[in-house]
Amino acid sequence: MTYEQLVVLQAIVTTGTFRAAAEHLNKSQSAISHMLKKLEDEIGIVLLSREEYRPKLTTSGEVFYRHATRVLQQMQHLGGVVKNLNAKQEPEVFLAVTATYPLKPLLDVIRETTDAYPATHIRLSRESMSGPIEQLLHGDADLIVATMDGVPVDQVEAVPFSSVTIIPVAHPEYAPAQNKEMNSIREMQSYVQVVVADSGSGKKPQSRDLLPGGLRWTVSDFAAKKDIILAKMGWGGLPEHLIRDEIDKGELMPLNVEGYPQRQSHLFQMRSRNRDAGIVAQSIWDRLMSFSGQIL
């Protein structure tokens, strides 16, 4: 029994006739018939009934074909592995990740990747708002981790990655934190909301989690935002993993703000549908798949 014989069997079953299988495999019809007959003789089973115009799998043939199909799939996968082993590593892989996601788990992925592919330079960029998707669509980033906001789904392959909890907080001594009832939008407009700037081109207006008509302070990153809030100079939403210790210690307090509930930010790992992944980018993609379903 050979791989080629199984390919011939699959071609006959999927195309419906010996003639069509011969055309599909670019072989003569007599060669196709001979290879199938040789396979049947070797295993001692009649796989196809020739009584009608279109050959039909026998009862035993159906069982054999199901197993043969799995073998062919495994062989094709093995061929892909061999292709990757023979391929050259990319000189660089660019991973752009939303700044709301913690860095440590990604460092573990990068460490494993650089150990396996030391010749490839891994470039990691922390981005905000539209930054990651712009990097991907412009052909700069190979892979991104971001929300689906503004993502053209026809151009991007997206897989659920993780969820991050965003909590509006302030220092306990900042006035809105001392209000035990819900803070209305009107009340909050007199207090400074600290927001992180969009790292993209700014062509799309920033609208997520912005209090309408309020005072605002824009900073470049979440570390600066957190420091300003801890300094009692404003309030704003921060990823829970960044502030869990401060909340537990009473240094920051979750706020009850109208129109600004605690929310889950759903993240996806994404890559372009129009760009072939290199072996290192594929390796990172596969490692990131293990994060699916995480909630932070």
Please describe the structure with a list of short key phrases separated by commas or semicolons.
two-stranded antiparallel ribbon; D-Maltodextrin-Binding Protein, domain 2; eight-stranded mixed beta sheet; alpha/beta; 296 residues; Arc Repressor Mutant, subunit A; single chain; 12 strands; WH_DNA-bd_sf
Summarize the helices and strands and which ones pair or pack:
Elements: H1 3-15, H2 18-25, H3 29-43, E1 48-49, E2 56-57, H4 59-86, E3 92-98, H5 104-116, E4 121-127, H6 131-137, E5 143-146, E6 156-170, H7 185-188, E7 192-196, E8 215-219, H8 222-230, E9 236-239, H9 240-249, E10 253-254, E11 263-272, H10 279-288, E12 294-295
Parallel strand pairs: 3-4, 3-5, 6-12, 7-8
Antiparallel strand pairs: 1-2, 5-11, 6-9, 6-10, 6-11
Helix pairs in contact: 1-2, 1-3, 1-4, 2-3, 5-10
Family: Belongs to the LysR transcriptional regulatory family.
Domain HTH lysR-type: 1-58
Protein name: LysR family transcriptional regulator
